[in-house]
Design goal:
Helix content is 30%, strand content 24%. It has 377 residues and is an alpha+beta fold. Among the domains are: 17-26 and 146-243, GMP Synthetase, Chain A, domain 3 (2-Layer Sandwich); 30-119, GMP Synthetase, Chain A, domain 3, CATH 3.30.300.10.
Length: 377
């Protein structure tokens, strides 16, 4: 995998030094399994009915998968079959484990969307109140914070090496964490890397550490790698039991992993399992898209856009942009207010009524090419 991450920069002016950490999780983490199932169901409905209203929550534990929520759709979808295929694609196929694609017991608790919500959404209003944020920074070509970008890259490579069979003892569940030293708002060095990966029982911790330290981390970090990085690998000493067989997974519990790794604020609403009429999702996406434009236009080096809605109303309650002292705040504010934040306008502008969401559940919703909110105006 070719990385587009920037090489370390040396600031011209000495600034305050601090270390910032962000984490990622693999697609086999129990919460991400739940997200992937939820958005697989969403995509299946949107593929047949672009106007489908979907709000699906998923819980995975042991040999059980619970699908709950509200769906109003003209599509005909076998939710259980979609769930099993999602589990299979992630890699939970071992019949000897409690959680496997063929053996899980699936319970459906799904009704239609409440009429009180529908009457507001049908006329173009927001389906609920809430606040959403979008963030962008020029510290990487992807306009994302470096710690979360590196953490995602490590988790993504673990999955790739597992699925290619190049590291046969890897198993689906994993977590990564990267700590980066900053001078002011400029990243200057990676200080600590933490990798916890599920593995076969018969592999030694020496073998795991050798793979992570000699192959995984140097390859993924590229120019950011240096031999003085503190490397932590499976700190408890073993990680043979993992995934939903050992832990409970629920939709929407990894919202900071999904967004900016804590560098940018989050309004609190999860993304996965929700169709684009839900402003938790579409509002956050358009805020990211607009924050990108602020940075690309040179109005600021860092930008955070906030929008707030009231249920049933199309026009937002408030819109705000923060530039953190890195640009022309007044010009950025004027620029951001040119955009239409009404939910229907967001959906049309970003073409969101398409089955594009299951891919977002793996390794972040932002900073990845090919997603409409990652493009330019």
């Amino acid at each position: 995998m070719t990385s587009t991450l920037l090489a370390p920069l040396t600031p011209t002016v000495r600034a305050t030094t601090h270390v910032f950490s962000s984490e990622s999780v693999s697609e086999g983490h129990p919460d991400k399994v739940s997200d992937f199932i939820a958005d697989s169901i969403l995509d299946a409905h949107l593929a047949q009915d672009p106007l489908a209203r979907v709000a699906v929550e998923v819980l995975c534990k042991d040999g059980n998968v619970v699908l709950a929520g509200e769906i109003t759709s003209r599509a005909t979808v076998d939710h259980a079959a979609i769930a099993r295929e999602a589990i299979r694609q992630i890699g939970y196929t071992d019949l000897a484990t409690a959680f496997n694609a063929e053996g899980v017991r699936i319970t459906e608790l799904i009704s239609r969307q409440a009429p009180e919500i529908a009457q507001g959404v049908d006329v173009g209003g927001a389906g609920d109140q809430g606040i959403m944020f979008g963030y962008a920074s020029d510290e990487t070509p992807e306009l994302m914070p470096l710690p979360i970008l590196l953490a995602h890259a490590l988790a993504r490579r673990l999955a790739a090496d597992r699925k290619r069979g190049t590291v046969p003892w890897l198993r689906p569940d994993a977590k990564t964490q990267v700590s980066v030293e900053y001078e002011g708002s400029t990243p200057v060095a990676v200080r600590t890397v933490l990798v916890s990966t599920q593995h076969a029982r018969d592999v030694s911790q020496e073998t795991i550490r050798s793979y992570v330290g000699d192959r995984l981390v140097p390859s993924v970090l590229g120019a950011w790698y240096h031999p003085d990085i503190e490397l932590l690998v499976n700190p408890t000493g073993s990680f043979a039991e993992g995934g939903p067989s050992a832990d409970c997974g629920v939709t929407g519990r990894k919202i900071i992993v999904d967004s900016y790794g804590g560098m940018g604020r989050h309004g609190g609403g999860a993304f996965s399992g929700k169709d684009p009429s839900k402003v938790d999702r579409s509002g956050a996406y358009v805020c990211r898209w607009i924050a990108r434009q602020v940075v690309r236009e040179g109005l600021a080096r860092r930008a955070e856009v906030q929008v707030a809605y009231a249920i049933g109303r199309a026009a937002p309650v408030s819109v705000r942009v923060e530039t953190f002292g890195t640009g022309d705040a007044a010009a950025a504010e004027q620029f951001v207010r040119r955009f239409d934040f009404r939910p229907a306008a967001i959906i049309e502008r970003l073409d969101l009524r398409r089955p594009i969401y299951r891919q977002t559940t793996k390794y972040g919703h932002f900073g990845r090419a090919g997603l409409p909110w990652e493009g330019d105006a």
